[in-house]
Every structure is written in structure tokens, then in C-alpha cells.
Write a structure and sequence with these properties.
The chain is built from 7 helices and 6 strands, in the order E-H-H-H-E-H-E-H-E-H-E-E-H. Strand 2, helix 4 and strand 3 form a beta-alpha-beta unit. The protein has one domain: Rossmann fold (3-Layer(aba) Sandwich). The protein is of the alpha/beta class. Strands 3-2-1-4-5-6 form a 6-stranded parallel sheet, with helices on both faces. The longest helix has 20 residues.
Length: 185
């Protein structure tokens, strides 16, 4: 029996607009940034640490109908205490009912859960996934204009979730071909 190739989807920066929520919360201009490590974001992140209302009310970035592909998990880098808030947020906004994995080391979480493909907005996560021998699709939200060295393979980069289906199918085929070749070696 052929093993299913599992796909995971990040939440903040892909489905939820964490950056817009932070801009509104701290009265900052919603402008294009070139990386996630923006100084003011890093300096203010602790101020939302115990604010369940903030996490429960993040605005949408991509609507559920933008997800035109099957996937198996959400992998999200939030404090563990917000797991239930994240599940509630996904359900409230009508996203598919899938398990939510909380992990700051997403490549490790992927390996632990048998996930082969991750869609994520953070370039560093895509890099780590690739280094771990897994596949990453780099989602670039409308507010992010990465520097050239922070852009993943253009064939594996999307600006809308509706662009992911064909890439996922190509990656699945590539993974299956690689698995088949290993069986015959």
C-alpha cells in the first residue's frame, strides 16, 4: 500500500493576518516589510503574550475557499497555551477541521508527524525544511517584499493559496518517484 504524502499549512502570515493585527494594536502603519524580524514587532511581542482576545480575533488573510488542495495539519508557531484559541479561530472562520500542531521548530514537527510538504510565509522555516530534506512552499503575503536572498525557489513560491495545488501535486509526484527509486536500489 502506498504511503500518503502529508501536507501542512502554517496559520499566522498565511491564513491569519498577524502583522495587520499587530499594526492595529500598536498604532503602526501597515506597510511593506522585508522580513519577519522587524524591530518594533520583536520589541512588542511580549505585550500580547497573555492576551487571548488578541489571538482569538486575528483578521483573515486567505479565506477558507482559497484552499483548493487537501492537507493534513496546521503547523503553527505560537505559545502552546494558545493551542485552543487557534483551534477556535480556525473553526470560527470556517477553515477545514484538521489537527493543529504547535511547534517553533517546524521541520522537527514535520518529521515527527510524517509531513513531507509545508506551506509557510517565513523564509527561515522554508530554509530549515529544505535542509531537513523536506519540501517547502514559500507563501509571500501582500505586506512582505522579501530581499532577493530571502526568496525561495520561484517555482516553489506563491502569493495566493489558490496557486498551491499544482505545486503540491508536482512535489508529491517528485516525492513518490524518489521513494520508488529507493525501493529498487
Amino acid at each position: 500500500m502506498e504511503e500518503k504524502i502529508k501536507v501542512a499549512l502554517d496559520v499566522d502570515g498565511v491564513l491569519a493576518n498577524f502583522y495587520l493585527a499587530m499594526c492595529k494594536r500598536f498604532n503602526k502603519k501597515y506597510e511593506t516589510i522585508d522580513r519577519w524580524g522587524v524591530t518594533w514587532l520583536n520589541e512588542r511581542i511580549d505585550e500580547i503574550d497573555d492576551d487571548f482576545d488578541f489571538w482569538d480575533n486575528l483578521p483573515n488573510m486567505n479565506r477558507p475557499d482559497a484552499i483548493t488542495f487537501d492537507f493534513d495539519y496546521y503547523i503553527t508557531a505560537i505559545p502552546e497555551k494558545y493551542h485552543d484559541s487557534r483551534v477556535k479561530w480556525l473553526k470560527h472562520h470556517g477553515y477545514p477541521d484538521k489537527p493543529v500542531i504547535v511547534a517553533f521548530e517546524k521541520a522537527e514537527a514535520m518529521k515527527e508527524n510524517g509531513v513531507s510538504i509545508l506551506i509557510d510565509d517565513k523564509y527561515e522555516n522554508i530554509e530549515k525544511v529544505s535542509y531537513a530534506g523536506l519540501k517547502g512552499i514559500h507563501f509571500i503575503p501582500d505586506y512582505l517584499y522579501p530581499k532577493p536572498q530571502q526568496t525561495h525557489n520561484p517555482k516553489l513560491t506563491i502569493k495566493h493559496l489558490s496557486e498551491a495545488n499544482d505545486i503540491i501535486e508536482e512535489l508529491k509526484k517528485e516525492i513518490k518517484d524518489k521513494q520508488s527509486n529507493k525501493k529498487f536500489v
